[in-house]
Design brief:
Elements (H helix, E strand, L loop, with lengths): L1 H44 E14 L20 E9 L4 E10 L6 E13 L2 E9 L22 H9 L2 E13 L2 E13 L3 E15 L2 E14 L4 H16 L7 H5 L7 E13 L3 E12 L6 E10 L4 E12 L2 H5 L6 H11 L5 E14 L2 E11 L15 E12 L1
Antiparallel strand pairs: 1-2, 1-16, 2-3, 3-4, 4-5, 5-6, 6-7, 7-8, 8-9, 9-10, 10-11, 11-12, 12-13, 13-14, 14-15, 15-16
Helix pairs in contact: 3-6
């Protein structure tokens, strides 16, 4: 009797254990399935893109041109690599980060973009965080060499963007249609700070229209801007401020106050730009003009470029012309204080801010694989007895620049 009871208990216990074990395996299997589904969902929500450029550039003269290009082969100036992460929080909200490493900055990695985007519907969307300034037709693709014909975009127009491409801001964009045209209007507000200047309150507006192969855009931005103490104008003030104060002691004026070296003396800066692009399967035609103006002693400057390319097969030869010039040279030639000593020092230094540059370019682009392009470009640069885009005054007015890049996107 006891033996039968013991056997029955053993059978019942074993059956319960097997049932519990089966349930545990089933639960574990379900958990693994749920985890795999979550991972799959995350993969679908996270998109990773990237681009890179490997480039080399050299020019004729010893003096540095456009931030360090000399008569020695420079493998770092144009080389860069970046990854962009887009995480879709839901169907209307996403977070975007772009990390980039540039050769000219010793390949240190920085966050170029970092913003939260939300679509409200009916064409409205907003972004907040670290954004790209919308000043140019190629602003969004400025670092992506694969997206443009040149080995490097024309410094005569895009030089300002290289020094001040991003800022912390909020953006509102409205997408709509005008007949057969698709269009969007964009407004941004934020703070911009670079090594040379600070704009605490920057407003930017951009309007873009597209029809078939044709794109048109216009943009305007404005900000009260002051210069950093170690900028060119800040350095100039160190040498002349004392003499300027002495000359205007009765009026209580300072040179620092006239040029804007702090937030209280900031000067209004305004930027205006227009552009057009025709990009078909065969032809690429682009033109862009911009104008930068300062109320103070910052350099007023106009710049433009024209470029045309013809595609056949995997090749596109192109020709380009660009020009930039300072437009307030006469202001710097005029006496400031009526004190010959002060005026001599100020005017002599300020004349170094006068600039003029013409650049004629010939190039060839070869798309030898999907997402990979090889480019070679020749530039003839004329600075017309000014500093142009050189880092210091060049020993000659003209120089030849040769560059080559391999650009890729993935």
């Amino acid at each position: 009797m006891n033996i039968n009871r013991l056997a029955l208990i053993t059978v019942i216990t074993s059956t319960a254990s097997m049932t519990a074990y089966g349930n545990s395996v089933e639960q574990l299997t379900n958990q693994v399935k749920q985890l795999n589904q979550r991972l799959l969902d995350q993969e679908q929500r996270l998109r990773i893109n990237g681009f890179a450029t490997v480039g080399v550039v050299q020019q004729d003269l010893e003096e540095g041109y456009h931030r360090g290009i000399t008569d020695e082969l420079n493998w770092r100036r144009y080389s860069k690599a970046a990854l962009q992460f887009t995480f879709n929080i839901d169907e209307n909200t996403s977070f975007v980060t772009q990390l980039i490493s540039r050769g000219e900055e010793d390949f240190d990695t920085t966050a170029e973009w970092m913003y939260l985007k939300h679509n409200f519907g009916n064409g409205w969307s907003t972004k907040i965080g670290r954004l790209r300034k919308p000043n140019y037709i190629l602003s969004e693709f400025f670092d992506v060499g694969y997206a443009m014909p040149w080995t490097q975009p024309p410094v005569e127009v895009y030089g300002v963007l290289e020094e001040s491409a991003n800022y912390e801001a909020i953006d509102f964009t409205y997408d709509f249609e005008i007949g057969d045209w698709s269009a969007f209007a964009q407004a941004q507000y934020g703070r911009s700070e670079t090594d040379s200047s600070v704009s605490p309150d920057l407003f930017a507006f951009n309007f873009n229209m597209n029809y078939d192969y044709l794109t048109l855009r216009a943009g305007y931005s404005r900000a009260d801007t002051f210069f950093q103490p170690d900028s060119d104008i800040g350095t100039l003030s160190v040498g002349v401020n004392a003499a300027y104060e002495a000359a205007y002691a009765s009026a209580g004026l300072t040179f620092d106050g006239q040029v804007g070296l702090n937030e209280e003396t900031a000067q209004l800066a305004q930027f205006f730009g227009v552009a057009a692009m025709y990009d078909s399967d065969t032809w690429l035609l682009m033109a862009e003009f911009n104008s930068l103006e300062f109320d103070g002693l910052g350099v007023d400057e106009d710049g433009f470029y024209l470029v045309g390319g013809y595609r056949f097969g995997q090749f596109m030869p192109f020709i380009s012309y660009a020009r930039s010039e300072s437009t307030d040279d006469d202001d710097r030639e005029a006496p400031i204080t009526m004190n010959p000593v002060v005026d001599g020092a100020v005017v002599a230094t300020q004349l170094s801010f006068n600039k003029e540059q013409d650049r004629f370019s010939l190039g060839l682009r070869y798309d030898f694989k999907p997402g990979i392009a090889f480019k070679i470009q020749y530039d003839s640069v004329d600075t017309g007895d000014t500093i142009g885009e050189f880092d210091t005054f060049p020993s000659e007015d003209t120089t030849d620049v040769i560059s080559a890049t391999v650009d890729l996107v993935f």
